[in-house]
Amino acid sequence: MAYEMTRAERLQYQRRQDAAYQAGEDAVTNLRTALALADMTLPSLSNDGPVAGHGFVRLGGCNAAFANRLAEVITAGADALQHRRREADSCA
């Protein structure tokens, strides 16, 4: 016999799914904005809905030149963050 969720369980499940979907939407917006700052776009970037109760972002494919440029931007950002942390640690 299959388990039937109660009304309260269904509402709780729907709230979690809605929150996961919204997290995916927010992540897409944040990533699209960050890419735009680097004058880059991922045309296939999209929210793929909740998966296992979590937001799921589909990045899509890109050519090797774009992937290499994206790696450069991420590396530069990571280097800047590390530098900022080192400065903050030395001032503390």
List keywords for this structure.
mainly alpha; 92 residues; 2 strands; two-stranded antiparallel ribbon
SSE layout and pairing:
Blueprint: H1 7-37, E1 46-47, E2 57-58, H2 64-91
Antiparallel strand pairs: 1-2
Structure description:
With 92 residues, this protein is mostly helical. Helices cover 64% and strands 4% of the residues. The chain has 2 helices and 2 strands. It has a two-stranded antiparallel ribbon. The chain starts with 6 loop residues before the first helix and ends with a helix. The mean pLDDT is 94.
* Low-pLDDT runs: none
Biggest pleated-sheet summary = 2 strands, antiparallel
Residues in β-strands, percent: under 5%
**Which class do the helix and strand fractions yield?**
mainly alpha
- Spatial gap, N to C terminus: 62 Å
Instruction: Report the count of strand segments.
Output: 2
A few lines on this structure:
The protein has 92 residues and is mainly alpha-helical.
